[in-house]
């Protein structure tokens, strides 16, 4: 039993760390679109300006998207085949942990039912706050002005600048693995 209580916190920590580091991705696309014809891109400023994140984070995301598209053989153009847009959502998650037992010093009891006494009871609950972010990357056919592909990534964000930069690259990279449809491993 003692080994179980020693192992449970380690298991919980592993689950928390692994769930925080992963990005869940999904993609949807127009089955009628011919993705092989798309070779050039530009960013859709109107759509990007509506994203409710800091300009610093927008630039981080756009640099990551640009790097991924260039790696896929796209070129940036004034007369693009596709326009790239994005939007984001985030939500805070608050977890309250109230499951630890401890020794208490004060309480009702003692001689005659009054005064200080010792006994088992609940410790102070602890809380954890994390931010879950959703990043949507839209690829729009520039001629038809129609959405042809949308990738979405969901995961936990970091407030640390260096970690945030890496996390954004991870989000974008994993989302863009789904483009073009059928190319993912």
UniProtKB/TrEMBL annotation:
Gene3D superfamilies documented for this protein: 3.30.160.670
Membrane-crossing segments per the record: none
InterPro entries according to UniProt: DUF4136
Keywords: Signal
Pfam families, alphabetized: DUF4136 (PF13590)
Domain (DUF4136): residue spans on this chain: 25-181
Signal peptide bounds: 1-26
Top-rank taxon, per record: Bacteria
PROSITE patterns: PROKAR_LIPOPROTEIN (PS51257)
Protein name: DUF4136 domain-containing protein
Organism of this sequence: Algibacter amylolyticus
